[in-house]
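Hey team,

Filing this mostly as a record. A colleague (T.K.) asked me to run one chain through the structure pipeline before their review meeting, and I want the input and output archived in the tracker in case anyone asks later how it was produced. No errors, nothing strange. Just documentation.

Input sequence:
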Amino acid sequence: MMLEGKVAVVTGAGGGIGREIALAMALAGAAVVVNDIGASLTGEGPTSATPGEQTVAIIQQRGGRAVANTDSVAEWANAQRIVQTALDSFGRIDIVVNNAGILRDQIFHKMSPEEWLAVINVHLNGTFFVSRAAAEHFRKSGSGAFVHMTSTSGLIGNFGQANYSAAKLGIAAMSKSIALDMQRFGVRSNCIAPFAWSRMTSSIPASTEAERARVARLQQMTPDKNAPLAVFLASDAAKDVTGQIFAARHNELFLFSQPRPIRSTHRGEGWTPEAIAETALPALKSHFLPLDRSGDVFSWDPV
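Output structure:
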């Protein structure tokens, strides 16, 4: 019962990874606010309270405590209501898991402003809004844990996901800023890059043999494999863990590097464009990173 007595908000908890995290946190002793608007993968069309209510029902059937919330994370006032639901229902808030998300995949030169903004609003703005709504309560209580969902699409790269990749890399940077700004208040902030076959990955193309092999690997990775890491990061056992980026891939756990200088060159008289081409480029080029994507880096079968 690593989360006994704690209250967690889990966004996008009506299914997939979010549901598994909510269930695991409830089993670990937390009371859970299950947030989900019940929208389609793209965030378009009608919404429904049913997915969130189903997660709540499972938690309650197992003897846990949970309430549903259907506010969209993409609005500041809604984020306030999500956090207030925790306060009204359980009297406090200790954990925020920013998991809600949508996809509007499109090759960059065809991506519309609407496709860009829709994804940024839910992922990046939504993570800020809900985190900011909880931050003052965390500061006053002298403790709190943020667990944000990033993605290797942002950390490494992927085709047709400029909006999603930008949002997810932005979340990693935001998490680091939260960790720096709120460490003195006992507040921690970490990221998980989850691997799982779920609604969010079901749009991955599988038209070539290599793509089909990648999808087959993902299908072996069930959403529940990400939940133990989220529970740990939210618990007091992780009291010294903050500002980090982890990944859960089936039975593997990874700690990600964060950008740091890897090579430098110096010219006492300064640089001209010509000098960069003649001197700096040869010195730096051998350290260039390849133009790869997530599937190229994580190319082995899950174990």
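Quick notes for T.K.: The mean pLDDT is 94. The CA atoms of residues 4 and 29 lie 4 Å apart.
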